[in-house]
Design brief:
Order of helices and strands: EEHEEEEHEHHEHHHEEHEEEEE
Distance between the termini: 50 Å
Number of helices: 8
Helix content: 10-25%
Strand content: 15-25%
Shape: elongated
Radius of gyration: 31 Å
Number of strands: 15
Largest sheet: 5 strands, antiparallel
């Protein structure tokens, strides 16, 4: 015998990458429960939340909150909207207070009610057109069980002729971490900088990579009688002249791209400077810097990470001026000048040189979304 429970509808978010008109593409097994996971979303439509009535108000007939949530999930899936249920356990806390006589006492209260929510859709961004159309549709939608008096549903008054889900809204998957959401949000400039380039890090399918070099723009801080004091704008113009007309950030991007290409080549220069060559190198640009990484790993415990880190890590070297005294020197890669004449001991400056970061850093591969 079933017990009547109140079904209080609240906002719940659901995310969908499909239009609700493509119902045939959505799995809808009547005997299966569709639970929310961290893989769904990140943006979803908050459809409704359900909770059971108090013990004293229960009747012999009606649906439980869990039954109502599952029915709604299947109804939405029947319409072509991927919907999921999400349980939020009750949370009770104790506070210290005083009675009317001033005597101290403790009182329990519900800091969080026991609820089952329904979220729908899997959208990459809140302004997604399909997401907004789905939200508008859900706001007007009336599920079958609400019209059945035997369901025992108690619906929050939304006013007028609005549907029971008129308060639905867009939200993020509650199982997603805020840091993950921030990391997945990419501005249009960064997307453009990493589109259509060679050795793009964003194309790497692994989760981790080892950052070995960082290239940033140049800046100036006027001090004392600096000729740039009060006229800092001329600094960028002067840097551009020295860098062939490129601004400092553009030059940083060029340096990173050239280093990634050089690391991927089999060359005597790489073997001499690094003791190895032909590294799996990648480049990534943002609005502030460009980086070069090597390798791709599924686990932070991959032994290959340590081997590569030792190659690019700064090392102590004996100084020529003071034998026996060591200094920490960053790893470098230099391409020799083809005009060098070893037999005449005639040497020219290298055509290109790069200095690596003192300490390689394992990072997550950025994703462009």
């Amino acid at each position: 015998m079933r017990i009547q429970k109140s079904l209080l509808f609240v906002l719940i978010t659901c995310i969908s990458s499909m239009s609700f008109s493509t119902a045939y593409a959505i799995e809808n097994d009547p005997g299966k429960e569709y639970k929310l996971t961290e893989k769904h979303g990140p943006w979803m439509v908050m459809v409704a939340s359900f909770r059971d009535v108090h013990e004293a108000d229960r009747k012999k007939e009606g649906m439980t909150a869990e039954q109502a949530a599952n029915d709604l999930v299947h109804e939405l899936r029947e319409k072509g909207i991927p919907a999921y249920s999400y349980s939020r356990d009750a949370k009770k806390e104790t506070i210290e207070t005083y009675d009317r006589m001033g005597n101290p006492k403790k009182r329990d209260y519900a800091a969080q009610l026991d609820m089952i929510c329904v979220l729908a859709g899997n959208y990459e961004k809140v302004e997604d057109q399909v997401a907004q159309k789905t939200l508008a549709y859900i706001k007007r939608y009336r599920p079958k069980f609400v019209s059945d008096p035997k369901s025992g549903a108690v619906v929050r008054d939304t006013g007028g002729a609005k549907g029971p889900f008129a308060a639905a809204f867009m939200t993020v998957n509650p199982l997603r971490k805020p840091d993950d959401m921030a990391r997945n949000k990419t501005d249009n400039v960064t997307k453009s900088l990493n589109s259509g380039i060679d050795n793009a890090l964003v194309s790497l399918k692994r989760k981790y990579t080892l950052k070995v070099a960082t290239f940033t723009g140049k800046s100036v801080i006027p001090m004392g009688n600096s000729r740039f004091a009060g006229n800092e704008g001329n600094f960028d113009l002067e840097i551009k002249k020295k860098d062939g007309g490129l601004d400092s950030l553009a030059r940083a991007g060029e340096d990173a791209a050239q280093l990634a290409y050089a690391l991927r080549q089999s060359s005597p220069a790489a073997r001499e400077c690094l003791g190895a060559d032909r590294f799996e190198a990648y480049v990534y640009h943002d609005k502030y810097k460009s980086i070069v990484t090597v390798g791709g790993f599924d686990s932070p415990n991959d032994p290959e990470i340590r081997r590569l880190a030792e190659i690019f890590h700064s090392k102590y070297k004996d100084t020529e001026e003071h034998p026996g005294k060591y200094e920490l020197t960053s790893a470098t890669l230099s391409l020799p000048n083809p005009n060098n004449q070893p037999e005449k001991k005639l040497w020219y400056p290298p055509i290109q040189s790069w200095a690596f970061d003192p300490i390689p850093e394992l990072i997550e591969v950025p994703r462009i979304k």
